[in-house]
Design goal:
about 5% strand, two-stranded antiparallel ribbon, about 55% helix, 6 strands
Length: about 425
C-alpha cells in the first residue's frame, strides 16, 4: 500500500536468555539508567536548538541528526535489554549493528515540511497516546524540545502496559526455561519499535508519521508462530466508515452490550458444565462447544463494531461468515485433562497480556473515532493494531471457555501452517 517506513525495526534475536543475567537484569542496568538520564537531558536541550534551525533551513544539521539517531537507537537497545526482548549487554553509544534488536534510521537528514516542524509536538500527541499504551515512556520520549516553548523529560520510568507485562512474564519464563517465549518477544519488540518511530518523528529524524501496523513493524521477523485454531479473518483493506454511525457508535452498540452481558452469564454456567465434561471425557461436549463458540465469535463482532475495527451493524447470533471481521474456530478436539483441570490458573498470564492490549485497543478506537469522522475511513495502522488485540482477546476467551486448549499466542504476527514430516 505504501513505501516502508524509514524507521524500521531489525530483529535478529535467537530467544536464548542467560538465567544469571536475567535474574539481576535491573541491577546490571543501573549504569545505563544513569547514562540514559544524562543523555536525555542533553537531547532535550539540543532538540530545542535543532527545532529552530529546522524551521529556518527545512532540515536538521548533520551533527544534530546523528545525535538524535544515536539516542533513538540507544533507547531501542536499552529497552530491549531491560524487558528481555534482547539478551546481550548493550553498549552506551547507540551504534548501529551492535545489538540483536536494532533500528534502521535515515543516514542523512531529510528535507521536511516547515509547518509540520512548527507543530511537531502537537502532531505527535496521537502517536504518544498509542505509544503510552504499548510502551509507556520507555526510552524517554522527549516532549517539548521540538516545540521551542518548554521542555521536559519523562525518563525511563518503568515502561507501559504491553511492554511491561511482556517483560515481567518473560522474566519468569526465561528464568525457568532459559528462553524468551516467541509471542512475548515479538509483542515486546513491536512496542519498542513503535516507540522508536515516535521518538524519531518527535526529534525530527524523519517527518514520516509512526505506523502502528504490527505486521510492517515486524517485517524482519521471518519465523512466524504456528497456526492457531482461533483465527481472525476478513478483508483488511475495507477501511470505509460511515460518519453517521461512527458518531453514534456507542449509542448504537447499547443493545449489543446488554445482550452480550446476558449471554455471558449463560456461557459462564455452560462453561462450568463443559469443564466437568472435558475433565471426564477428555473432549468437550459438541453442543456446548458450538454454543460457547458462537458467544466468543459474537463478542468479537460486537467489539469490532464498537471499537471501529469494522463498520456494519452486527447480528445478534454470532453466526460465522456474516461479518467483515470474523472468527474461525475449529470443532471440538481432544484436550489435555491436566490443562483442563488447571485452566483457570493457566489462563492468568494470557489475561494479563489481554488486559495490556486492551489499553492499546481503546486508544486506537479513540483516535480512529476522530479520524473517521473527518475522513470517512479508518487509519490502516490503527485498524491492524486493533485487529491484533481483538484476535488475542478471542484466543484468550476460547482458551478460558474450553473451546481449545491451545494457549493464546501473543505475537502480533499471523500464524502459519507448520509442515509435518
Amino acid at each position: 500500500m505504501h513505501e516502508p517506513h524509514p524507521v524500521g525495526l531489525l530483529v535478529e534475536d535467537d530467544y536464548r536468555r542467560n538465567r544469571l543475567t536475567v535474574a539481576f537484569r535491573l541491577i546490571l542496568a543501573i549504569p545505563h539508567f544513569i547514562w540514559f538520564f544524562l543523555w536525555t537531558i542533553w537531547v532535550v536541550l539540543t532538540s530545542i536548538v535543532n527545532w529552530f534551525i529546522c524551521l529556518v533551513t527545512g532540515r536538521p544539521p548533520r551533527w544534530f541528526h546523528g545525535l538524535m539517531c544515536g539516542y533513538v537507537r540507544y533507547q531501542v537497545h536499552l529497552s530491549a535489554y531491560i524487558y528481555l526482548v534482547g539478551n546481550p549487554y548493550p553498549g552506551f553509544m547507540g551504534e548501529a549493528g551492535e545489538y540483536p534488536i536494532d533500528v534502521r534510521l535515515p543516514e542523512d537528514p531529510v528535507k521536511q515540511s516547515r509547518w509540520k516542524i512548527l507543530l511537531r509536538l502537537f502532531l505527535t500527541i496521537p502517536a504518544l497516546i498509542v505509544g503510552a499504551a504499548l510502551a509507556g515512556s520507555t526510552g524517554g520520549n522527549v516532549s517539548g524540545g521540538s516545540s521551542g516553548r518548554r521542555s521536559r523529560t519523562t525518563g525511563f520510568n518503568g515502561g507501559g502496559a504491553l511492554l511491561l507485562v511482556c517483560g515481567v512474564l518473560g522474566w519468569f519464563a526465561s528464568l525457568g526455561r532459559g528462553r524468551m517465549p516467541k509471542g512475548l518477544r515479538d509483542a515486546g519488540a513491536y512496542s519498542i519499535g513503535y516507540t522508536a518511530q515516535t521518538s524519531a518523528y518527535l526529534l525530527l529524524v524523519t517527518d514520516r508519521y509512526p505506523n502502528a501496523d504490527p505486521t510492517e513493524m515486524l517485517v524482519s521477523v521471518t519465523d512466524r508462530p504456528p497456526r492457531h485454531p482461533v483465527r481472525v479473518v476478513g478483508d483488511p483493506y475495507d477501511l470505509r466508515r460511515s460518519r453517521v454511525t461512527v458518531f453514534f457508535r456507542l449509542l448504537l452498540a447499547i443493545p449489543h452490550l446488554i445482550w452480550l452481558a446476558l449471554w455471558g452469564i449463560v456461557v459462564l454456567l455452560a462453561s462450568i458444565v463443559q469443564w466437568f465434561v472435558t475433565l471426564f471425557r477428555g473432549t468437550p461436549a459438541r453442543g456446548l462447544h458450538r454454543f460457547i463458540s458462537a458467544y466468543v465469535r459474537y463478542r468479537l463482532h460486537v467489539s469490532a463494531f464498537l471499537l471501529l475495527v469494522a463498520n456494519p451493524f452486527p447480528g445478534f447470533t454470532g453466526s460465522p461468515s456474516v461479518y467483515p471481521l470474523d472468527l474461525e474456530l475449529e470443532g471440538p478436539q481432544r484436550q489435555s485433562r491436566w490443562k483442563t483441570g488447571f485452566r483457570i490458573v493457566l489462563v492468568i498470564p494470557a489475561f494479563l497480556v489481554d488486559t495490556a492490549l486492551s489499553g492499546a485497543l481503546v486508544a486506537s478506537a479513540f483516535l480512529t473515532w476522530f479520524y473517521a469522522l473527518v475522513k470517512g475511513s479508518a487509519p490502516w495502522g490503527l485498524r491492524n493494531l486493533s485487529a491484533y488485540a481483538l484476535r488475542y482477546d478471542a484466543q484468550t476467551n476460547a482458551y478460558l471457555y474450553l473451546v481449545t486448549d491451545r494457549y493464546p499466542h501473543a505475537s502480533p504476527l499471523e500464524g502459519e501452517d507448520v509442515p509435518t514430516e
